C-alpha cells in the first residue's frame, strides 16, 4: 500500500513507464525500510536486549522448561527480526500493514492469536489443555488468551485498554513516552500560573485522546487518573527493565498459588518475599478506588471474601486465624490464594489490594 502513492506520482507527474515506476517505487521502499530498521538501535529503551534475554531465560526456568513465546504486535510495517540484536528474541511479528488495520483494532490482536495457534505443538500441554485441537475460532479469543498472555506497550489506549478488552494481562511501559526526569516538574506558584480547575469530564476527554502520560496537578485528579490507568494496566513501569522482573514475579505468584491450593506450605520463601514487597505498596483500597472512579467506570467489588471457618481448615480457631493471615479468597470465583497473589490462579482475574 505504501508503494502505490510513489508509483502513481512517478506515472502521473514524472512520465515514467509502468515498469520503471514499479521498479523505482520498490527500490525506494527497500532503501527506506532498511534505513528505518538501521535506526531502531539508536532509539532503544535502556537495557532492552538484556531484558529480552532475561524474560526468556527466567520465565522458562520458572515454568519447568516450558517454552516462552515472544511476539511483536506493531503499528506500521516494522519487524524487530530485521534488527540483528533483536532477531533472536522474537518468535513472530504481526504488524498493522500486514493485517490492514491499526491498533487498537481487535483484528490486530486476533492475528497474533492465529500466530500462536500455529505453534500449538511447540507449547505442548499448556496449549492443548487450554485450547484443545482443531481450527482457530475467533469467538473463543478471550478463552484462548487467558491470563497467561501478557501484552507490553507504551500507548495506554492502543495497548493496555485494547489488551484488557481481550482479558490479556498488560504492562504499561512508559520509558519512551515520559519526559526526562529533570523535566518532570509539577506547576506551582514559583514555576508558573495555577492550573485551570478541571472536572471528571475533562479527565474522560483526556483519556479518550490518550497518547501517553496525562499532565495533571497533584490531588484528587491524580488519584482518579491513576485508578483508571490501573483498571486497565495490570502493572505500570517507567523503565523497560522492570518488565522482566514483573513477569518473573507473576510467575512466582502463580507457583505459590498452586502450592497453596494443593495444600502446600503458603509460608515458603517466595511467598514471604512477595508479601513483604506488596506490604510496602501505597495502593488505594478497593473501596477508595471504587468510589473515586464510580462516575467513569462501573466496578463491582464484593463486600467481603468467603469466610474462613474451623470446618474449612479442619482444626482449632487459632489455626484458622493463623491461616487467614497468610491466605485469602478470589473475590470472583472463591479459589483459595496466598495473600501475596495479584491474580487468581484459577480464573485469572486481578485481585484488589488488601491492607
TrEMBL record:
It holds the Pfam family Zn_Ribbon_1. Keywords: Hydrolase. The keyword Metal-binding does not apply. Transmembrane segments: none annotated. Residues 329-349 form the Zinc-ribbon domain. Gene3D superfamilies: HAD superfamily/HAD-like. InterPro entries: HAD-like_sf, HAD_sf, S-2-haloacid_dehalogenase, Zinc_ribbon_dom. Residues 257-270 have a biased composition (Polar residues). It comes from the Eukaryota. Residues 256-288 are annotated as: Disordered. GO terms for molecular function: hydrolase activity. Residues 272-281 have a biased composition (Basic and acidic residues). PANTHER family: HAD FAMILY HYDROLASE (PTHR43316:SF8), HYDROLASE, HALOACID DELAHOGENASE-RELATED (PTHR43316). This is Zinc-ribbon domain-containing protein. It comes from Trieres chinensis. The lineage of its organism: Eukaryota, Sar, Stramenopiles, Ochrophyta, Bacillariophyta.
